[in-house]
Amino acid sequence: MSRFYITTPIYYVNALPHLGTFYATVVADALARYHRARATSRGEDPKKSVFFLTGLDEHGQKVERIAREKGMDPQAYCDGIAAKFVETWDRVGISRDRFIRTTDTDHTAAVIDLWQRMQANRDADGKPDIYEAEYDGMYCVGCEEAKTDDDVIVEGGQKLCPIHRTPVEHIKEKNYFFNLPRYAPQLLRWYAEENDGRSPVQPNSRLNEVREFVKGGLRPLSFSRAAVKWGIPVPGDGPQTVYVWIDALTNYVTGLGGPEAVKRGEGNGAFWPASHHLIGKDLLRFHAVYWPAMLWSAGLQPPKQIFCHGFLNVKGQKISKSMPATRVDPNVIADELGVDPLRYFVLREYALGGDGDFTYEALFQRHESDLGNDLGNLLNRTISMVHKFIGPALTAQPPRQNLEASQILDSTQTAWDGFSPANALEATWRLVRAYNRKIDEDKPWVLKKNNQTAALVEVLADCCESLRWAALMVAPAMPQAAREILRQLGREKDEGTWPTSWGWPGGTLTQPKPVFPRIEPERQAELIAKWVPADASTAAATLASAPASGPATPVSPPADITIDDFTKIDLRAAKVLAAEVVPKADKLLKLTLDVGEPEPRTVVSGIAPAYTPETMLGRTVIYLANLAPRKIRGVISQGMILAAGDADVLGLSALDRDLPPGTRIR
Q: How far apart are CA 553 and CA 543, in angstroms?
């Protein structure tokens, strides 16, 4: 039996759920749902095949201070935040197998167990992995992390954390330390290993980052705090508490029953090692350096893969409690659109691994084009024609080979397996669009008029089967919408499965009901105004009027051209097949493009400051095909892609839907 164990970061209780936490959790939920469906279709018990863990990090100095400022007991404060997270995750359909809190009793036991296992481990000279020493240095409470001079910035004579822009504190106290340098060689060997063709840290840019960090030399890691009371006491030394990050990382084994269950592979412990730790890029060092070393010290295996997703910004601004206009509440959007359109949007719009920019306008665009015009339209017109031309009951059709559908299914599975929800949904939509075209080409109304009953039934049954397949393939992203599509098809029993063979199995269809009702532009504007916090009107207006990365440079309008001039320009849709940094060129990426011709084209583009290679893979871009080739840094560039911005790239020129490579743009 295959096993799939996925985790999100456990979120710190200094903020309520927001777009960033929603994004990471929905990605993990979609992957868990996909693997459960695949397991079910293989005849396996999904509860024994898939485990999904998420939860909250509730200890540490920051929580202690926040609770004190609010005049609350730390546990009471954490309980209130936890209730909000549980309520939100239930609302948006997060199908976790456990919601863990670091204040849980079994977590305390797991942390103590892991600590003692590490403390008992000694190197060849007899030095224990955990030992006492004095810490004398800088510390950022916001990061809950020690800082060196290389980690801080200096402004106005003060040393600041570059992330929180707050002064670091100087701490001098007795601590316990972890002999982290002992594990540097083992870490470097681990980074070179592959699991299912992939390195243990993804994407590769993050692998390179963490490898260079380890090569630069590791220092012993301060493993406890004397001044922090809100935490788990160090075994045998009560005044000391376990460093909050050690406490937090241990949650991944707590959720499976603790270190002993994991070591023995008993019960849920059989899911270890984790298939994927899904984390934000700011958590890389903790997960890809400290955590594997801790596990080896405790005699346990490291995770199979750590995958770093990027950040979602709002109108180019990082989500921040201090800037209300960047707050995007999933709950208020769900009140109007339902949960699934927002789930679909964050999974489809952003390439996992790179940063993305959220706008309400883009959300509505996806809702209208992908969901309404494509999937919703196929559902409504298919069911309406079945009722009108045949009746509600559509009999089963013999299974047969459908090469196009099989290829789409393979592409969808490959993308989900490869941690690429955006490409998985793109592949699924190829099936939806193919059958919208099929209706236009086969014209069921003409078949009905000509009494071609057998052909009519075959066409409509195929359309129903395409919808059944689409519902099952899109269910990881949109479980509620998929359930409703299957209900209208009379195929509720298929929920939770995965397509295996083509052939309409029969069903009694209900009357059509729009799953994604159209939202008029006026209503969209009303909703956007409603969703932006009332105390953020000034900031929101600033964001709405500004481009993503700062004010644009004023430019003089170019001279007018004629239509004859324009017809000389060969613009096409192109898909990025490969992307890599041009050596010794900080601003350049080398892109390999599918332009709808037998041979791909190579383009050198100055977008590296705004887009990493990983974020470009699979994107559909606008390509200028008949620009004369020229050599740039030793690479022949065969044309260019269009981007917004003058001196700085602010964004890529985009299409409102994916088009086949080579499609002409006019």
A: 16
**What is d(CA 515, CA 382) in angstroms, rounded to the nearest whole number?**
14
| Closest alpha carbon to 425 in 515, 510, 346, 320 | 346
- Cβ-proximal residues to 326 (8 Å cutoff; 6+ apart), any chain: 313, 314, 315, 317, 318, 319, 320, 543
pLDDT of residue 555: 41
Rounded to an integer, what distance in angstroms lies between the CA atom of residue 357 and that of residue 516? Answer: 24
Largest CA distance in the chain: 90
Nearest to 425 by CA among 18, 21, 8, 31: 31
pTM, to two decimals: 0.79
Contact by Cβ (8 Å): 479, 93: yes
d(CA 619, CA 349): 10
- CA angle 212/218/224 to nearest 5° reads 130
Rounded Cα–Cα distance for residues 154 and 173 (Å): 24
pLDDT grade, residue 536 (50/70/90)?
A: very low
Instruction: Judge whether 571 and 624 are in contact, CB under 8 Å.
Output: yes
Q: How many residues does the chain have?
A: 666
End-to-end Cα separation, the chain, in angstroms: 52
Please name the residue that has the structure tokens 């298929």. Answer: 494
Rounded to an integer, what distance in angstroms lies between the CA atom of residue 511 and that of residue 383?
Answer: 7
pLDDT at 296 > cutoff 70: yes
pLDDT exceeds 60 at position 335 = yes
Q: What is the DSSP letter of 401?
A: -
Residue 355: CB partners within 8 Å, gap ≥ 6? 310, 311, 312, 313, 615
Q: Rounded mean pLDDT of 547-569?
A: 55
Q: Residue 538 has what pLDDT?
A: 39
Query: Across 281-414, where does the E strand assignment appear?
Result: 306-309, 312-314, 317-318, 356-358, 393-394
pLDDT tens digits, one per residue of 242-286: 999 999 999 999 999 999 999 999 999 999 999 999 999 999 999
Please, what's the b/e burial string for 130-150 (b: 16 or more CB within 10 A of its CB; e: otherwise)? beeeebebbbbbebbbbbeee
Beta strands 50-57 and 4-12, pairing class: parallel
How many Å apart are CA 136 and CA 535, to the nearest integer? 42
What is the rounded CA–CA span in Å between residue 625 and residue 602? Answer: 11
What confidence category does residue 158 fall into, taking pLDDT thresholds of 50, 70 and 90?
confident
Q: Whose CA is closest to 142, among 132, 133, 152, 134?
A: 152
Read off the DSSP letter of residue 553: P
Q: Which residues contact 250 (CB under 8 A, 6 or more apart)?
A: 107, 110, 111, 114
Residues 6+ positions from 203 with CB-CB distance below 8 Å = 307, 308, 353, 612, 614
- Reduced to 3 states (helix: H, G, I; strand: E, B; else coil), residue 135 is strand
Helix-helix angle 339-349:421-442, to 10 degrees: 110
Six token digits for residue 173? 């106290």
Q: Which of 59, 143, 62 shows the shortest CA–CA distance to 102? A: 59
Is residue 485 within 8 A of residue 512, CB to CB? The reply is no
Query: Are 328 and 319 a contacting pair, CB within 8 Å?
Result: yes
Structure tokens at 549: 């990365």
Instruction: State pLDDT tens for residues 471-494.
Output: 999 999 999 999 999 999 999 999
